[in-house]
Amino acid sequence: MQNGQHIRSAFDKALEGIQANMLKMGGLVEANIISAAKALEERDVELAEKVRERDRQIDNLEELINDGISRFIAQESPVATDLRVLLSILKVSNNLERIGDHAKNTAKRTHVLLHLKDIENSQAALRRLSKDVQLMLKDALDAYINRDADLALDVIARDTEVDELYSGLFREFL
Question: Model pTM?
């Protein structure tokens, strides 16, 4: 039995390492959302560049996670619950990377806004959008960590509201 526990312990340790990278990635994405909104609101080109640099770290973490999962599956042949956990990490990290790209693209808009005058109420709408997205990301990661399906469903429901706010804000800028 001791050998089986040792194998499971190494298995769990490898899985925890992959999950830790995903949570680190989530923290970087959250920081980028905050920084991108601030760069846009304050028209801070230097902060926008930091967002772009941090996005490279996010991309590298996604690659590290993907490689870790591939190696884990090849070496450990996980089944049932463990395989579902790995596949969920893969999906979450892919979505985090995509959210990170959105933050980077938001920060890129800072250069364009330098030459435009403020649009009435756009700053307030941008702050609201940023806060909503930050809270959704936090809640989504909390739902994953705590295996809270109700919270995950709540995040999904809020996604439509955020999409509508984004579309309205985008129309104002056009």
Answer: 0.85
Site of tokens 């250069």? 111
Beta-carbon contacts of 108 under 8 Å, excluding residues fewer than 6 positions away, are 48, 52
pLDDT score for 121 = 66
CA distance 137 to 134: 5
**Segment 40-70, tens digit of pLDDT:** 888 999 999 999 999 999 999 999 999 999 9
Reported CATH class of domain 1-116? mainly alpha
Distance from C-alpha of 5 to C-alpha of 15, rounded to nearest angstrom: 15
Tokens of 22: 């995903």
Identify the band that residue 20 occupies on the pLDDT scale cut at 50, 70 and 90.
Answer: very high
Q: Where are the domains of the chain?
A: 1-116, 118-174
Nearest to 18 by CA among 74, 87, 79, 81: 87
